[in-house]
Amino acid sequence: MAATVAALAAGCGSSSSDASPPAPTTQVVTSLSGEKVTAPLKINRIAEQFPAHTVTDIMLGVGDKLVDIPQNVKTIPFLRKVYPGINGLPELFRNGGKVNMEELLKLKPDVVSTISGGDTLTPFKQAGLPAINMDFNTFPQLVPSIQLAGKVYGGTAATKAKAYNDYVTAKLAMVQSRLAKLPATEKPSVVHIASYPPVVVDGGKSLIDGWINIAGGTDSASGVKGTHVTVSMEQLLQWNPDVLIVETPGGDQGLAANSAQSVIDNLAKSPGWADLKAVKAGRVYLNPQGLYPWDRFGPEEALQIQWAAKVLHPEVFTDLDIRSEAKSFYAKFFNYHTTEADLDQILQVGAK
Q1: With 268 labelled, which of 32, 123, 194, 213 sits at a CA distance of 20 to 30 A?
Q2: pLDDT at 10 over 70
Q3: Which domain holds residue 65?
Q4: Of 324, 299, 306, 278, whose CA–CA distance to 179 is shortest?
Q5: Integer Cα distance of 350 and 331 in angstroms
Q6: Taking a C-beta distance cutoff of 8 angstroms, is the pair 318, 276 a contact?
Q7: What family name appears in the similarity comment (predicted)?
Q8: Residue 94 DSSP code
Q9: pLDDT (tens digit, 9 = 90+) per residue, 35-56?
Q10: ω into residue 198 within 30 of 0, thus cis?
């Protein structure tokens, strides 16, 4: 009997020690600005502070998990058409990322995707909300940003993130290989105008500066460091670039959607505009806007580098049909089949 009791005791002890530990419910991720953040493994509710990242969320298949988005993102016509669910979402995040924390907490987000790191995360931490900076400011940070989002959201989002990153990496390599031997003398000077009035440009060490250089241009505003920098019309006249690329308002800077032509129409009223080299040569281009302005912080950067390269060097990219490329892109990554009218709208064909 004693032996039997001992054997039973030993068996019970073995069963206890072999018990599987509980499955983890959280993971630690590193934001793009370096913070270590503990977030739930299962994400069901996402608050989005980063405007362009709303499009990334939709691409990764978690659009239905959004509970809050930034102001004016939903004014972009093509976004409303591709993802109608955007229309009913609250817009608690105002220009600059300001938010009423009490109202945000009512939405019970599992995670907040933010536009910056450091001290700006403190209010979210104090409120008990996992906040992860997925914002990026240079082209090389695009792939890590998408990869991070896939890791945070998990499941098929990670697979979709990899598919996108493979695509943009391949397109970047294609553009760079074709322009690798381009002499500096054949690189047109470019200024990217973000908005007007006043004249707002993007300069050195910015995403915009990055794609200008990738596309075989020289950024005349490279001496102005950063994004969304206000300069005078006199400064623009002094730069006098070969090419002007004008952003399409919508989402970025909290601006409601409009055509890039509306910005040019205002610029045309400014003294000296007609004397600019780019204006005289007919090299003022309307930057496409699809789900978001192509030139800014979203997945459509993959299309932007191809479009800009063809704009600056059409003779090198004669085989690149940007309409066909865009059509394929939206079908592959957003399961949306564009019409010719959609493509006209995105590329602003005949926009006035």
Answers
A1: 213
A2: no
A3: 26-157
A4: 306
A5: 24
A6: no
A7: Belongs to the bacterial solute-binding protein 8 family.
A8: -
A9: 999 999 999 999 999 999 999 9
A10: yes
Residue 12 lies in a domain: no
Task: Note whether 127 and 262 are same-domain residues.
Answer: no
Alpha-helix residue ranges (DSSP H) falling in the chain = 2-17, 53-59, 77-82, 101-106, 122-126, 142-153, 156-179, 207-214, 233-239, 260-267, 277-280, 301-312, 322-334, 340-347
243 and 319 housed in the same domain: yes
Q: Is residue 245 part of a domain?
A: yes
Q: Do 50 and 123 lie in a common domain?
A: yes
Residue 189: CB atoms within 10 Å: 19
Tokens 């399961």 correspond to 335
Q: b/e string for 97-122 if b means 16 or more Cβ within 10 A?
A: bebeeeebeeeebbbbbbbbbeeebe
Q: Does residue 224 contact residue 241 with C-beta atoms inside 8 Å?
A: no
309 and 181, same domain (yes or no): yes
**Structural domain count of the chain:** 2
Count Cβ atoms within 10 A of the Cβ of residue 275 and give its class: 0-12 exposed, 13-18 middle, 19 or more buried. Answer: exposed
Q: What angle do CA 298, 147, 292 make, to 5 degrees?
A: 10
* Angle between helical axes of 142-153 and 156-179 (0-180°, round to 10): 170
Structure token pair of residue 219: 């950024």
Tell whether 32 and 125 lie within a shared domain. Answer: yes
Same domain, 206 and 277: yes
Secondary structure letter of residue 255 according to DSSP: P
Instruction: Name the DSSP letter for residue 27.
Output: E
pLDDT tens digits for 254-293?
555 566 778 888 899 989 999 999 999 999 999 999 999 9
Q: Are 171 and 117 found together in one domain?
A: no
Query: pTM of the full predicted structure?
Result: 0.91
Q: Are residues 63 and 173 in the same domain?
A: no
